Structure formats: structure tokens, C-alpha cells
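Section 5.1 Outputs to date
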Amino acid sequence: MKVGLIALLAVVLLGGLLGTLIVQDPGYVLIAYGDKAWETSLWFALAMFILLYVLVRVLFFAASRVTGGFGGLAQWARERKARAARKKTAQGLLLWAEGDWRESSRLLADAAPAVEFPLVNYLHAARAADALGDEARRDEMLAAAEESTPGSRFAVGLTHAELLCGQGHYEQALARLLKLRGEASRHPLVLRLLTQCYEALGDWEALLELLPDVQVSSALDEQAFDRLLERAWTAHLAAAPAEEAWKNLPKHLKKRADVVAVYARALMQDDQGARAEVVLRQALKSDWSDALVVLYGEIDGGAPREQLAHAEQWLRKHPNDAALLLTLGRLSMRCESWPKAREYFETSLRLRQSADVYGELGRLCIRMGDVERGGEYMLKARPDLPELPLPSTRGVVEDVAG
């Protein structure tokens, strides 16, 4: 309050002093240019000068505001476009998550040029197109993704390979993945996709060569890797020379029933039934398995009576084992002991009903003359029973009479 009053008094005093000076001596100013001259008082000229200065400042201020206004307008337009693009992107991603592939792909592609990270839009648009089965648009979106973002070639190539795997185009995917592996030899996703390709194409040797890198890179968790390792070696056992593949098999896999079963079947196909019988018998000593027990009854080891004797010894430790009783019945059939085989089958059936037992008991009953009961059993039988000796009518009569 006091400061304002003092300022007002100062202005009044200065105004009075200035007025006194103007009255006492107005001064004189002459401005001449060529044949023209302009005369005025000093104080008027000073006032005009101040007014001119103010006008110039006002003009500069107005010009700067106008120029800034145009720039602000352009900035506002850009921000508005960016907001619209972000809204489209959010909507497109939401529709992508909901499975509306067509509309999602359109929105994401439309918004891509105006967003900060267009690569994300184009890759999701490509995935949406792939889900629709539109390969042309998928490839178009992938090309746009690579063009939009420098240094994205690897990521785009990896996405393309993944989509090709998803569509079952494993040969095309494999070609791309091998190129990518040349740039990143232990990239986890590249290795994981390569395992899918090799497994789908049945290239077990290539898959087995790849597995050490897969393990080192942690491309798969421990359980998934172990399952893949077993599948690869099992398939290799079935396809390659059995003995050679078995020698190279990791030691811990040799103890697994599924792997041993594949090896035994491969030996049987190579006419090495005796070797298969030994392999199964040794495996069953260390780890009892119904699958291996049943397989033991299907192989022809060349000495059926010895094979039956081994199996009957197991019956002491496993007296109520339905699988073992089925095997004993089959081995009895190989030894042509028909009543004994029927007894084993009937005991197994009482413990557990199975299509194998119904089939074996059914065809045995029919050949032994019990056609009605055999026919009933065969209705529940497994269609692909193993090849086993069957009694002739004469043999059955003689066996019963004896």
C-alpha cells in the first residue's frame, strides 16, 4: 500500500516537472531529407519516437504469435493424429486378443504409420492375417514391419518362421531358421522351433545333433527336454540299425520301459528274437513293467519252453498279475500246451478284462471246439493279435483224451 502511494507521488512529481520543462522550453527539432523538411518541438518528437518504438514492439509480438500459432496448430494436428492412432492400436490389440482377426489386422495396420513403435502393430497384424489363413497379407505385413524399423530383420524372420511352423509349413520354416541360426547359433526360440521342424519332418539324426545346443541354451525346460530326448532316441531306434543306435543311446534312457520296448521290437524286425528275449528279461529284472511283460509274450526267442520257464518263475513274485498271466498263456500256445494256455487266459480275464485276453481266449476256444463261447469272446477282442500257433481239431482231441 505504501509502496503504491510512493510510486503514485513520484509519477505526479515527475509529470509536474516534465510539464514545467515543456512550458519553459518546448525545444526544436528539424528533420530534412532532400528538398523536404519537417519541424516540430523536441517533446513532440520524443513522444513520436516512443510511440513508434511501442508500435514496432507490438508488431513483432503479433508476428511471433501468428507464427507460433501456425506451429501450434500443426503440433495439435500431429498430436490428434497420434492419439487416434494409439486408440486404434489399443482397439486392434483388444480385438486380436478376442480373436477378431480381420478387424484387428485392419486397425493395427492403419494405425502403424502414426505410432511410435510400428513394428508391434505390423507383427500383430501379420499374426492376425496368418490366423485367417491369408498368407499374402501376412507376408505384406511382415515386409512392412521390417521396413518400418531398422534392425528388425531377425525379429521379423523369427516371427515368420514361427507362423510357418504353426501352419505346418515345416520345410519353409526350416530354411528360414537355419539362416537365423547362422546369426545366433544358440538363440532359444530358434532352437525350439528347429526341434519342432526336425521332429515333424522325421529328421531324427539332425534333431539328435541339435539337442546338445538346446540343452545348453535352456531353450526347453528340463522335463520338456527329457521328453524330447526320449522321443528322438526312440524314433531313431526304430529307424536306424538297432544295435548301433542302442550303443549310442544315453545310459539313463536304456532303463526306460518305452525305450526298451522299441529296441526289442526293432530287434524282432531284424530277426534277432533271441537277443530281444534277453534284453526284455534283463530289463524286467531291474524294473517290472506290464508293457514289457506283455511284449515278452509276443516275441519268438527261438526257445519257447525256456522262455515259458523264465516267465513261470516270475509268477512266484507276481501271482495275481493279469499281464503276466496273458504272457504265460501266449508262451504256452507257442509250446502248444493248449489247456494250460486256456487256463492262464481265463485266470487273467478274471483279474482284468482286456481286449488282448478276449482275443486270445476267443480264438483258442473256437479252435478247441467251444465255438459259441469263443465267438462271444471275439466280439470284444483286439483285431490285431500277434501271430501264435493254434491247435488243430485233431490235436485238441488227442490232448483232451490224453
